[in-house]
Amino acid sequence: MILLSIAMIVSILCITNIQAQTASVRGQVIGSQKKGLAAISVSLLNSSDSSIQKTIISDENGNFLFAEVKDGDWLLLAEAIGFKKYYSAVISVRQKNIVLPVIVLQESAAKELASVTVTANKPFTEQKIDRTIVNVDALISNTGSNALEVLEKTPGVLVDENGGISFKGKSSVLILIDDKPTYLSAADLATYLRSLPSSALDKIELMDNPPAKYDASGNGGVINIKTKKSRAKGLNGSVAASVGQSFYARTNESINLNYYTGKINVFANLGYSIQKGFRQLDINRDYYDLSGHLTTSFKQTNYFTPVTKSPVAKIGFDYYASAKTTWGIVYTGSVSDRNEYRPTFSYSYNASGALDSSIKADNSSVSSFHKNGINLNYTHKFDSSGKVLSFDMDYIKYSSDADQFFANSTYSPTGSLKSSQNITDQLPSGISIYAAKTDYVQMLPGKTKMEAGLKTSYVTSDNEANYFNVNNGVSTIDYNNTNHFIYKENINAAYLNFSKEFKRVSVQAGLRAENTNGDGHQLGNLYKPDSAFTKHYTNLFPTAYLSFKIDSAGDNLLNFAYGRRIDRPNYQDLNPFVFILDKFTAFAGNPFLKPQYSNDFKISYTHKNKFTLSAQYIHTSDIQIETIEQNGSVFISRNGNIGQWDYFVFSIETNLHPAKWWTINTYTDLFNYQVFSGQLYNGYIQTKSAYVYAQVNNQFVLGKGWSAETGGFYCSPRQQAQFDKIAFGQLNAGLQKKFWNNQASLKLSVRDIFNTNTSTGFITNIPDVIAHYANHFHNQVFVLGFTYSFGKQINAEHKRQTGSAESEAGRAGN
User: pTM for the whole thing?
Assistant: First the structure.
């Protein structure tokens, strides 16, 4: 892998140096002593409404550069604590480079300095050419919440009862954190996101059809969660604490620190949360004979009361070797210790409705989940034309261990004990990831941008399940359920992308190639033989984009996008053995799972970034989806390739300002229509359903530091393969007061006011069985949160926009 990484760098460094003809704005900021001022915030403003288009920080000599500035009229704002603000005259950019006169900042008087604060009101969403950006701090109700709850309020994102994430009706979303995948199963990813406090989050980038530079995994697109990192000189940061009350209480504390000198930048995000949850799951199953007569009814109620303690940390160091070269190292770590008590009460009735038997199960588990990751990165900007070489190397280690105990007692209708069964298990697992990636960007003549890159990754997933039957205090190994599964995978990728802007047309096209090599080994035991499989395949993934300005001002845009994507089987889904959830429910993997492929077509119209109407069609072959198989009295859940999926959606997104004090953001899927068709266990299945999904958020500025927010979502009934899901939704509200020169805030929020976010429906296509389920999450939670920021707060862009591991996150289970 090291040799390949060196080869990647050498190959890209050999690309011919072609000088670009681009429009740029450069200048220098000095003080009264005629010396360059470092770490000055310089913003490029739209001359028509003074909206900020981009903010950068001056280097150690006071120099700054805005590259690839579009034609138009602009203003420049330079500001820093201790200096008076500087506004330039109008700067006209007409396809030529601009060199500004030297900017001299005047020092503020001491009495003025005492009252200086830098504030900004971020919009909830921002539309970019290839993504939608959501600003986390713009929503009051995000205070005291975690990353998974923040995603739940993100436009087009839906979080199901198990923490699974879908985006615009599509599952298999590739989740990145600071441009790096998580490599986690759906359950472990949900656990990790619940441990990540919202105060550590900066932005969420939504890409339903990402360009070729991103890994091709995930037919649901890419969601990139960006954490906070400042580039203001000196020490700055924030502290946050909150207490919440749901069915049980919860607390969340965090601190974000950043120290920047101009030569080095050190940052740390630390958090700790304690949460005790409560969930009730009701399952009813009615069994019929071949004549359609009821034979048995089964009713089950499960209670889940997990207690989770989660410290998280992200610590990084950047070294600016020169104005063009930066080296960096980042450590990320988290621990999630979880104790859970899961009592289950089951009742079996005969055809006449009389009680046959009852079962009480005292199930419990103690688990611990650890993540440790190191990233080394390098960036070199060759010149002011935008030619950049970047390189990343990553090592990530996930480890988890769980001890579970199942105690099942069966009673007669009179209440006497008929039988008992005690089972324990130990479930250690680990994932190790090694990845290296390099990206190169260069501007070519005629406003053409070229991007190229190479990547390689190696992943090992090691999972054990050791089951024991316990009789009279003596444990005996259960070889029927005990297993040990090891999966190793190597992915190699390369991409090339070109984009070009004309007067009213922008085009972009890219091609990505990915080669996959996987080996699975199911270790045997005294009663089970070894088994193994290998998978090798190579695929091409084209992408294309076209943007047309209907009018010369660019207020009305017409966009078209196409992309091909892949979803490889999740690591755990390939494990063929059965994992017990309770006496009547189990999960099993499928070593014969194949990757699914999708082709995505989208056309959209946007008016002044306030209104967007989109139409999208996706065709997916060999779709992987959860299926339910009946094996006696046990329902087994496993993923399978059941056929194909066709998905049509028409959506509207708005960003409106009815009044200076009122902002409305909405996202609505006016029409979702999906068709599943293929082969299930007992024959052919075809399901068709149409549904509506809507999100809305209202923000109110009340004056004197007060602001408020209301919002929520609604999803109508829908059918997805074997699941008929009933409508659900939730309503949120928040109130905020800022004080201490806007450096501190106190927020009160309530999530799921009417406790309506439940998951209820029917499981279909099981012969001679009607099954109904109802998940009651008790999502309603009241939160009181306090935040205090110190130092100069500048929301500059992160230094790095890529990592070395972008294709395996969806494979890990999300």
Answer: 0.74
